[in-house]
Every structure is written in structure tokens, then in C-alpha cells.
Amino acid sequence: MSYGPSLDWLNFLLADVRGGLGPYVSVYLLTEANWDQATIGAVLTASGLVGITLHTPMGMIIDATRSKRALIVAGVAALSVCALAIAWRPSVPVVLAADIVMAALGGLFAPTVAAITLGLSGPGELAARIGRNVAFDRLGNLAVAALAAAVGTAVSLTAVFYLVPFFAVLTTVAILSIPASAIDHERARGLDSKAAAERPGPPAGWFKLLTYRPFLLLAAVTILFHFANAPMLALASQKLALSHPGREAALTSSAIIVAQLATIPMALLVGQADILGRKPLLVLAFLALPARGLLFSYADGAAWIIAGQVLDGIGSGLFDTLLPLVLSDIMRGSGRYNASRGIIGTIQGVGGSSSHVFAGAMVVGVGYGWAFMALAGIAACALVLVVLAMPETKPKDA
After folding, report:
1. Which domains does the chain have, with CATH numbers?
2. For residues 196 and 106, what is the distance between their CA atoms, to the nearest angstrom?
3. Assuming Cys at both sites, which of 12, 39, 191, 259 could form a disulfide with 312, CB separation 3.0 to 4.6 Å?
4. How far apart are CA 342 and CA 335, in angstroms?
5. Considering the entire predicted model, what is its pTM?
6. What is the tens place of the pLDDT at every residue in 154-191?
């Protein structure tokens, strides 16, 4: 594949576009727009729930269109408009509409980049390319965190929103440097282009996805993984804040950075999945999560909790990188790769959103230790399911 550098920049810059806005919205609304916490929570929750429901339709659109570059360009343009709208007019109707659009775009960027990668990658290239995609995405996250912190401190919090259109322009240059003719759109939706030419016909009905046993198993372990994983950092941050008053921001930032740094080598390790196999790496990812929950249930010191975030980098880094690769194995020949990615995205959102209520109730009822133990137990169930039921999906020709 001759467009590797373009994909590297695309993933790096898209991380900047996405990451340059989301974490700052609630802080901006609270400190600059003088919103109360209840209104902020209601607006962000409502928009998030709408966004979850749109992931599957987004995947179907990505499967159907041959204008995948245009989806990226239109998406970053829409995100820029949303960022500027929030900065210029932070009223409830404007912010709600902008946040719904941003939540919907959450189901567009990563799947479209994955589809383009699939359409550009030849035999034996996909695992290494997906690993590089995630590694550059994580580097972008770290870069934008540093840049946004510097701009927000030196200029103003409002100035952070202007980074989004700046990076959107650079992202547009990166995606347009990949010619449309270089993307095999049949392969990008999970079809074998040669077989499709020999036996033309419509892709499999998308309801048929629900009959694919490996897909159903992947969906089951995905919702368990995200249910167990989503609240862990928030609970660990609360635990740190209670035991180290006045150092909350620094310790939470340290925990996030450690996890992001650990993710990068894990993403590159997935590049060897054609040699190591998919399942051993999946087992390692699902082993790291209950181990992290058990550590957090007993550890009180900041050093232990921050060090435990290495396990987050291992678990999330491996699973997030493996997911599009395993899906491409499972959906090979179906023509519904992106629809399946949308369904999995919805499942991730449901698992992650619902677990916060469960974890909060556990903390109130029995304390942090037992809450982490419960999350570790759910993660252990996912591990058992992966070990006993999930097949090795590596193609024979990989």
C-alpha cells in the first residue's frame, strides 16, 4: 500500500479534531457560559443516547457509498461548525443540536477510516496497518491534550474550540491526498472484489448478521468488556481525589497519560496478529481488565493506581485495535462490514453508558473496593467466554 503516510496523518489529525473538543465542552459550559451541572448533564446525556442509536445507520451508509473521502470531509466540516456554534452561542438549543451532531459523528470517523484502510490494504497488510492506525490515533490524542492545555492556559478556554476547524483543514488535505481510485470499495465493505466481479449480486441482508455465531460472540464479549471497563477510570479518579485532595487534576491526568502511552506498543503488537493469531491477543486484552479491577479494589496509593493504568493500556489498546481486524475476518464476504461495525459501536455505547449507573450504586451501597470487585467479576466472565467460545478468526491466507 503506497498511501501509508497519508493514513498515518489522517489518523493523527482526526484524533486532534475529535479530541480537541469533547472533554472541554462541559468545562466551558460550566465556567464560561454559566450553565448549572444538571443542565449540562441532561444535554450531554440526551445527545449521547441519540448518538448511540445512529451508529448502525452510519455503518450502513458507509457500506453503501463509494464517496468515503467525502464522508470524512463533510464530517470534519460539520464538527467545525458545531465547535464554533458552541463557542459563539452557548444556548441550550444550540448546544443540544451541536452535541447531537457530534455524537452522531462519533459513529462516522473511525468506521470510515477502517473501511478506507480495508479498501487500500492488500493481502497480509491489514493487521499491521490497523495497528499503525491506532498508534497514530493515540499519538494524536496525546498531542492535542498538550496543545489544548497550552492554548487554554495561555489564551482562553474559548480558543480551544478554534483548534477544531484548524485541524479539520489539515485532515481534509490528508484524506484528499488518497485518490478515490485507490480505494477498493468492494473490499472496503467486506466483499472479495474478484468474487464480486465473478458473481455479482447484492451483499448479505444485514439482518443475517444476527445469525453469525462469531459475530454474536464478539458482540457479547464487547458489551461485557465495556460494561466492566467504562467506569474504572472514573472510580479510580474519585478514589484518588478523596485520598489526595488538591492533587486531583494532576493525578487524573497522569492516569490518562500512562494508559495512552501503554496503548501505543499494544497497537503495534496487533500488527503481528497474522503471526501470533487473533485469539491469543484477545485473551491477553480480556485478562488485563479483571486484573486491573482487582488491583484497584485493594490499592489506595496513587502510585499503584497510576501504575495500574498500564493494564488499561494493555486491555483497551489490544481490544480497540483488534476489533476492526476481527470484524473484518468474521464479516469477510458479507458486504456488511461497516453495518456490523455500527452495531458493535451501539453495543459499546450501551455497555459503557449503563455501567456508570451500576458502578455508582455499588460505591454508594458497599464502597469502592466491592464496586471494583464486581466490575472485575464481570470482566472475568468476558474472559471465560473468549477463552472457551471465541474462535480463532485469522484467515488461512493471512
Report:
1. 4-188 (1.20.1250.20), 206-389 (1.20.1250.20)
2. 30
3. 259
4. 14
5. 0.79
6. 877 788 888 889 889 999 999 999 998 888 888 877 77
